[in-house]
Amino acid sequence: MITCPNCGHVNDSNAFRCTNCDTVLQQAPAAPGPPTGGPPTYWTPAQVPNYLAQAIIVTILCCMPAGIPAIVFAAQSMSKVGSGDIAGALESAQKAKTWCWVAFGIGAVVMVGYVLFFVLAMSAGTMTFEG
Ligand SMILES: [Zn+2]
């Protein structure tokens, strides 16, 4: 509770002005600073995602033809960060990310294809063996 020094009216403890005479009771709450946790309104070089590691991993594990462009774009993004071209670096990072997913998707399809092939081959072989 805050008692107004001007008129004696009792206001809420969080009241900014007296509801009776409009006398300022306390300092306005601090102006909200830069938002924390929200998406940044601008990017610094440290905030440009680096997909080089992911690109190399998908190239080795999943699909080399689709992994190569991912590595190229990731490297391009890093060199653009180095030259201060943040917008270009973000664009390249986005392409690297896309190619990572392409390579991962192809790798997953190929993997499923291999599994199906072996399952079919084994069941076919078993039938032949038994027949
Ligand atoms: Zn008052």
Quick overview:
56% of the residues lie in helices and 3% in strands. The protein is mainly alpha-helical. The chain folds into two domains: 1-33; 47-131.
Describe this structure in words.
It is a single chain. This protein has helices spanning 52-61, 64-82, 86-130; strands at residues 2-3, 10-11. With 131 residues, the protein is mainly alpha-helical. It folds into two domains: 1-33; 47-131. The protein has a two-stranded antiparallel sheet. Helix 1 (52-61) packs parallel to helix 3 (86-130) and helix 2 (64-82) packs antiparallel against helix 3 (86-130). The protein is elongated, with a radius of gyration of 31 Å. The relative contact order is 0.10. Zinc ion (ZN) binds next to loops. Residues 4, 6-7, 9, 18, 20-21, 23 line the site of zinc ion (ZN).
Describe the SSE topology.
Layout: E1 2-3, E2 10-11, H1 52-61, H2 64-82, H3 86-130
Antiparallel strand pairs: 1-2
The structure holds zinc ion.
Residues 4, 6-7, 9, 18, 20-21, 23 line the site of zinc ion.
* Structural class estimated from helices and strands: mainly alpha
With strands numbered from the N-terminus, the spatial order across the biggest sheet is 1-2
Largest sheet: 2 strands, antiparallel
Order of helices and strands: EEHHH
What percent of residues are in strands?
under 5%
Low-confidence stretches: none
Give the C-alpha Rg: 31 Å
Distinct ligand kinds:
zinc ion
Given the C-alpha coordinates, what overall shape results?
A: elongated
- Number of contiguous helices: 3
Give the mean pLDDT.
82
Percent of residues in helices comes to 55-70%
Total strand count, please? 2
Could you say how many structural domains there are in total? 2
Give the CA-CA distance, first to last residue. Answer: 93 Å
